[in-house]
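Box 3.1. Reading complex inputs
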Amino acid sequence: MIAALVILLFHLVVYGVFALNLMQFPFDYDQGEGFELVDTILFSQGQFPYRDTNVYPFYSSNYPPLFHVIAAPFVWLFGEAYWYGRLLGTLSAIIAACAIGYAVYRDGGRQRWVAVLSGLAFLASNTVYHIAPLFRQHMTMVMFETLAIVVLANVNEIKDQRTRRRVLFTGLTFVLAAGYTKQLAIATAIAVFVFLFIRQPRRSLVWGVGFALVGGAIFLWMNIATDGQWWLQTITANVNQFIPEQTVGLFRLWFSLHGFLIVPAALYILYELYFSRLSIYAIWFIAGVGVSILSGKWGAGDSYFTTSIAGLCILSGLFAAKTMRREWVNFPINLYTRRIILPLWRVANRLSGVGVLLIPLLYIGYGIATLHMPTQGAVFSTVADVFNIQPNVQNGFYDSAGRIAGGYADIGHLTTQADIDAGWHIVDLVRATDQLVLSEEASFNLIAGKDVITNPTQLLNLAQQGLFDSSALIAMIERQDFGLIIMRAQFYPVDVLQRIAVYYEIVETVPMNGFEYMILAPRSTPLPE
Amino acid sequence: MLIGGIAGFAAIMAIDLFDVGREGGIGPAQQIALALCVLLAFLGVTLIPLGDDPA
């Protein structure tokens, strides 16, 4: 157990180092973080970020508001910065991990070690590690989801009506908060109401109607307040092309990284299905896995597995706790007990002894399977040398995921002083022009005090469905209204990229965070059509 | 679960029956969904012998 704890605590240290490193980095680290900051700034000014993208500045958000609303007071206090959004994401993951540990402790017979390992296992996941410390809303959604599930897990067993209602209200408020943080929380909402329905149909219907009324009223209010842009930008624009190979690749990766805990989690679900009662954790995990299929959407990725990872940490923890308590002996008598369990009865004691030894090994195996760490720096280089860990991605970082699956975020490595210097160099270029600057990332314009123009991925989302009229933006490109264009991933719609290629040329390439930032200036003579 | 699995299977197959404009037959995403429906139905069948006794 101590070895498992040491490995997972090492993961926690790496997580803390990465989070602190990112909080000191003043630019976009993951593409799109800057637009989350722009949304936060707009909310801090009392404005909605759901806007008509056909007119200047061609900007809109495609995410619900709660994360940005929570972050908005930081804008009032500290101005425009990335650190507080990254702090919120980091803390969200830690709160979710604590909730996972608490659930395992409460419902797993107060097994302290297993509870701690379950919470740490969540933070050790490669996906959680590189998603949580970003200025992004995903981890805050997972935090609300996890809190909702943990609060509601035993609600039907509460005898006192007032207490039960209070717990139901709290849990469903968390579900609503998750949904208004990110749309993907639909999986948790479905899981919660399926669970409530199979235990107490009437209660689930009554509370379901109330939940739908409140959620629907907020939705309707925002849609009216934004003249329909809320629906267009957050719902319609999110129906993207589906790439099945990406989903299959990410599922394989998910299993290869988390398999040590997925197997016991799956066994625990089978136990509940055939010999006990389906818990909210099992239904939530299945819903989480189901929604992970959407990871094959264009623009989606491994973050879509985070809910399922939280679920599998709880279920595997409950499996481990039951094993540690040697409780795999009280099966109700039914067909499968007679056919499968009773024949094993003679070896049950020996199996339970093996199980107690097996649990720490599962967590050790998981800790090794999910290993990710810098291989440079005082302590990390020593660890890397001792265990012969070679860097396999940018900035001397090792990631067991290998970053080969499409949709797996190409992040997690630490930023360096050279990266910060490169960012300031780009800001200097932006400041040097009197004209507008079109940038695929918002940070350079925000720091230079210029308008943030476009949210490129959102324009592409809309363009792929014929919902973006690019004529005004293209007219500005053709008039060479932009003194500079900064691109990293070329996420703009194809027709926009084509016009940029005709009217602008690359004058400099700036390496930052392992990516090449292309700096384009107006051509003296546009390319012939 | 049995009914859900069968209904899901039928619904996925119906996409090809009714959406005649589609080409390429049953795609990879549909194959995955069909396999999940078969699994769901199988689990449903295996639960029938247990009856409705509360655990």
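In summary: Chain B has a mean pLDDT of 76.
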